[in-house]
Amino acid sequence: MLLPLLAASTADPASAAEKATLAEATALQKSLVTLDTHLDTPASLDLPGWSIMDDHDVHADYTQVDVPRMVKGALDGGFWAIYTPQGPLDAEHFEEARDFAVKRGLAIRTMVAAHPETFGLALESGDAAKIKAAGKRIVFMSIENAYPLAQDPTLASLFYAMGVRLMGFAHFRNNQFADSSTDPAGPKWHGLSPLGKDLLAQANKLGMVVDASHSSDDVLNQLIDLSTTPVLLSHSGCKAVYDHPRNVSDDLLRKLAAHGGVIQINSFGSYLRAAKPNPERQKAMGALFASMHEGEEMTPEAYQALLAKRRAIDAQYPDTDRPTYADFEKHLLHALEVVGPDHVGIGMDWDGGGGVAGLEDASGLPRITQTLLDHGYSREDIAKIWGGNVLRLLAKAEAARQK
């Protein structure tokens, strides 16, 4: 039943009578509820002197989302991530990770509370349209990497009470719940661990959407098979376009869609295509990032010194083979061709490594809408891609919770 439906909904570029202008695309996007399912912007809230209310320059401080740029890019909001780096699997580090994640969640809640005229906290799928109608930006909350839950899947209820509605299981390395797609050591559990299956049951019980981005293919397969509600890939890409462990094969995409799930296409450059090696730049950037610690308090002087070092690296070792908007576009259009507009969305990974040449920050997002119009996708299709699909998954999770 799935394939005829997808064939009927696949757009034909020739059906677009003429190329859409950026102004037309922006106007259309402003009329929709537009959500990005992976915003790492909460990390910026820790930067000294940095305000979400100010208009920042991505080339000056490397941040990509703030309120002025959301307005320019017609981005209503999305899922603001509680990201915790993967650490050792022992009691001391579990406690540190839990405390860090709680503080990051409180930082998101504080941002909303400090600017009630600008932000609205969304706890249910129906809240998104209400918050937009009130002229505010939408703040759903998510967890990227379940590591802070330690050995206790029931801690998911603490984060649900805080406002989290999207649960990601792993990140760059395997953890106590699931295998990562990128751990150099290879699989530990060959999918979900016993604790991971317990966490999935908790997420389903609470009404959280289950997120398989960063998890291995085995994990994705098992989540699709075991979850009582459809699975989301909050920021992923297509393996048929670029064979990278973080990307998903067409067969898995079809299985995801057949069970009602959705892939949100990301703009993380190294997942979009291979780039020419730049070892000097990689070494310098690696040393710089090794000197930083997620959530670490910095003085304004230290922050400015850090920015100066990064700009110096850019000047000395420029990134001459950076992926472009065309590379992102290939993943987006391929996913739409394979599973159709009911199963594709946007999760750019802003402030977490996302952004490509030609789409540097949130202010440029109408370019995506312009691409969709140019390829013959309808207003209804674009509404699903920009927010309708993820809200449908959240509504299904809410309904399962009520049962």
Automatic annotation (TrEMBL):
<dbReference type="InterPro" id="IPR008257">
    <property type="entry name" value="Pept_M19"/>
</dbReference>
<dbReference type="Pfam" id="PF01244">
    <property type="entry name" value="Peptidase_M19"/>
</dbReference>
<dbReference type="InterPro" id="IPR032466">
    <property type="entry name" value="Metal_Hydrolase"/>
</dbReference>
<protein>
    <submittedName>
        <fullName>Dipeptidase</fullName>
    </submittedName>
</protein>
